[in-house]
Design goal:
The protein is α+β, with helices and mostly antiparallel strands and 207 residues long. The protein is 44% helix and 20% strand. It has a 5-stranded antiparallel β-sheet, covered by helices on one side. Strands 1-2 form a two-stranded antiparallel sheet. A hairpin with a 6-residue loop joins β5 and β6. α1 crosses α4 and α2 runs antiparallel to α3. The longest helix has 26 residues. The protein is globular. The two termini are 29 Å apart. 14% of the residues are buried.
Length: 207
């Protein structure tokens, strides 16, 4: 069986290449900690797209969330400083404005994470080899409910030229990817991500 795989822009990647080897310390987590399990699988999925397919991570989605948080914290700090310089009750109008602004921004943040991020933990750009066409966009989103062993992963591809989206997903028990000691079996998880990626890529070639 060939050790070659299709990589970014269709080039072949050799699994025996050192870049493909998992030479890092194995990921070990508390397998009863839902958040830790989800984060470990999310990080492994990111690793496949970024290191094995060579896509470039885009931080715009997270940057906007951080901007909202930063502005909210800025209002809080301003309220503290203003109240220190002009003690209550003189600072009352400013405090009211800052408190209201903080809660409005927290509401905006909640809407943003619910309806914009929607569980997306990676946005990766597939650069055009010639540097002429817009970048293709790959998104990874996941869900793992508390006290549930089913890990749901969705891979969404957006064509940079046509804007057409293609999506593939799978739902499997996390028991398939961790051993009894809580060590992530990357060699079992990586093919799942690669399969979804290749299925989406194959659909694009048919269009």
């Amino acid at each position: 069986m060939s050790s070659k795989k299709s990589g970014k822009n269709g080039e072949e990647i050799d699994e025996k290449d050192p870049k493909w080897n998992i030479d890092e310390k194995p990921v070990k987590i508390d397998k009863w900690d839902t958040a830790a399990v989800k984060n470990a699988l999310d990080d492994a999925a990111k690793k496949v797209l970024k290191e094995k397919f060579g896509y470039v991570e885009s931080h715009k989605l997270m940057d906007l969330r951080l901007l909202i948080c930063t502005v909210a914290v800025g209002f809080s700090l301003f309220a503290l400083i203003w109240d220190y310089l002009r003690p209550f009750p003189e600072s009352r109008p400013v405090l009211i404005m800052c408190v209201l602004s903080y809660f409005v921004l927290m509401g905006i943040l909640t809407l943003y994470t619910t309806y914009v991020e929607k569980g997306i933990f990676l946005v990766a750009l597939q650069k055009d080899e010639a540097g002429v066409d817009p970048d293709n966009r790959w998104e990874l989103s996941s869900m793992l409910k508390k006290y549930d062993d089913m890990y749901h992963l969705t891979v969404t591809f957006t064509d940079g030229i046509t804007g057409i989206q293609r999506t593939k997903e799978f739902s499997k028990s996390v028991c398939n990817y961790f051993d009894e000691n809580g060590v992530l079996c990357f060699d079992l998880f990586e093919p799942e991500i690669r399969l979804l990626h290749n299925q989406i890529s194959a659909e694009g070639k048919k269009d």
